[in-house]
Design brief:
The structure is a homodimer.
Chain A lengths: L7 H7 L2 H13 L1 H5 L4 E2 H8 L3 H13 L3 E4 L2 E4 L1 H6 L9 H15 L2 H7 L12 H6 L2 H25 L7 E5 L5 H9 L4 E6 L4 H10 L6 E5 L10 E7 L7 H14 E11 L10 H13 L8 H10 L3 E7 L5 E6 L1
Parallel strand pairs in A: 4-5, 4-7, 5-6, 7-8
Antiparallel strand pairs in A: 1-3, 2-3, 8-10, 9-10
Helix pairs in contact in A: 2-7, 4-5, 7-10, 10-11
């Protein structure tokens, strides 16, 4: 045992929701979008955001102390990271994820204990609703959400464009592609490839606009579909990110089998998300994401690289391996 | 601007409520109290805690990855800090604070945006209730809460017992003393002092039992009272911790004036809590605590050392100064 443990780390973690919710409210209120237009003093900023004077100064200064704003001579500006990633007017905006977390997940996580006791979701499903409907039904929110997915996946997507031996293949399709960030990064890095992205039909216009903005409309097309109801398109490489964890083991195996069937001989399946380390004691984000799947889905869970490799081998894939991408993300690869 | 900002820090902070709530649920469920009795495998632990098997392994392993549990050979044990501070059976338990945060604050903070827009509390008061009632009405919860206050204040209290020139004084009283941790630490460090603690009458038995456990019952007595309705007891040194921030400026000045009146000539007032740094850009916990006062009280707010010194001087105190204690806590001292 350590010599003199202190309660500091326990309290910091336990009260960590204060700082977390402060950032989520700042995104909701548009603090960073407002400041991207120029420095403002506290009173002016509070007025433009519609904030009561009682808490506004503490709110802004807490964001300063958390490193998300700067203040000089009484005027606030964004920090370098919030200027790039939390200004709604920039394509690099990742706040759509945090808007969703603020509007939905923060409250649902309040019922974590009940989820742990019952094994049942604690989101819209609890009242007979549907999480996908909640996210997909409002086009403005959906667009912000998929833009957020692009922003948070960019690092991992650029790593996948580099780390996989793309020269061996001619075509690829990203399943559940959202805005199409991964296909765009792969196509930008490898001129010889063509392919596209597969997602629900509502995503089509968002994908096509994004891909066209990179001049990639000739090489990347949108495949509308539902990966449980429809056959998957035939291609050399199928990519499957942030999908398997939404489902129970049976559905996971169904999706892997469908991927095997759709791949050309010698083709590859790449599964990518916050893959948990095999020892299950390092990747806190991956393990917490799995608890998020408990709250959001009837049977979903995240899994280790070893788990996923065994499912791939059971489905007929060979030469499976796991490769770290960035942060909590890894890819699991199997060859048909 | 930095060369290549990444969204990682934004996402870690924004999703920080996941890890935070996971620890709060673990305290609620008694994970650490259970494991203090000995190592257990995941299935046995889940069964004893009444957890569904779906999420329990991810829950325990997330706590491992967060550094709050350890796992060896499939059996879980507490980490050194949770073993000392989150076992309900130990006097060092600080979980009462986290139980309160879990049962009350996490949900109330979900309305932070509304609090910022309206300037109004978002706790029991919103439905006509009262936060003090919610905490003080259940003796078991109250006891856990004041024990938690002891645990989290211990470091600052020991620092106050060392850093103040106690040899100049004969008597002291701690206002809003809770269990009496600070009086006990001061009395243990300085044989020549006698004094006590002032709090609401419900606290009396808890204080007396705690103080007696250190053999200090002869030197420390309990003063029941309400510091707005009753005069403060006369003494050489008055200590006022985690009180001023509960109130608006007018009430703060009333309490400081009452302290001035009660002190013997040459006496000292010590105000201690998470005093915000004068530049208001470092002490994130103090600034977030002030937002917590927005959520919990009609007019309370935290303040800088400079703010507090000016109120003390306005009330007649001289030779004011601020001294850092530990972590986010400082003391502000004024002499009558």
């Amino acid at each position: 045992m350590a010599g003199h443990p202190t309660p500091d780390g326990i309290l910091q973690l336990g009260m960590g929701f204060w700082g977390s919710k402060t950032l989520l409210s700042a995104v909701e209120l548009g603090v960073f979008t407002e400041l991207a237009q120029g420095p403002q003093d506290g009173d002016g900023l509070a007025q433009r955001l519609g904030l009561h004077q009682r808490g506004s100064r503490d709110f802004f200064d807490a964001l300063v102390a958390l490193g998300k704003l700067r203040r000089e001579g009484g005027r606030y500006t964004n920090s370098p990271d919030t200027e790039v990633f939390l200004d709604r007017a920039k394509p690099s905006y990742v706040g759509g994820i945090l808007e969703m977390a603020n509007a939905r997940l923060f409250g649902f996580w309040g019922s974590l204990t009940e989820a742990l006791r019952t094994g049942r979701p604690q989101n819209e499903a609890k009242e007979g609703g549907n999480a996908f409907d909640a996210i997909y039904s409002d086009p403005v929110r959906l667009e912000a959400f998929v833009r957020g997915m692009t922003g948070v996946s960019m690092g991992a997507n650029m790593a996948m464009a580099q780390k996989f031996p793309w020269s061996k293949y001619q075509s690829f399709i990203d399943l559940g592609t959202a805005q199409g960030c991964l296909p765009a990064q792969i196509a930008l890095a490898h001129d010889h490839l063509s392919g596209g992205g597969f997602d629900l039909p509502q995503i089509g216009p968002i994908f096509e606009q994004y891909v066209a903005s990179f001049g990639l409309a000739q090489r990347l097309r949108f495949y509308p579909g539902d990966f449980f109801k429809d056959p998957l398109p035939e291609t050399d490489v199928l990519l499957m990110g942030h999908i398997l964890h939404d489902w129970g083991l049976e559905e996971k195996r169904v999706l892997i089998a469908k991927a095997y069937e759709a791949l050309n001989p010698g083709g590859a399946l790449i599964v990518y998300e916050a893959v948990i380390d095999d020892a299950r004691n390092q990747n806190a984000f991956g393990l917490l994401m799995s608890l998020n799947m408990l709250i959001e889905t009837p049977a979903g869970f995240d899994y280790t690289g070893a788990d996923c490799q065994s499912w791939l081998r059971d489905a007929g894939f060979h030469d499976t391996h796991v490769e770290h991408l960035v942060g909590p993300d890894s890819m699991v690869v199997g060859i048909k």
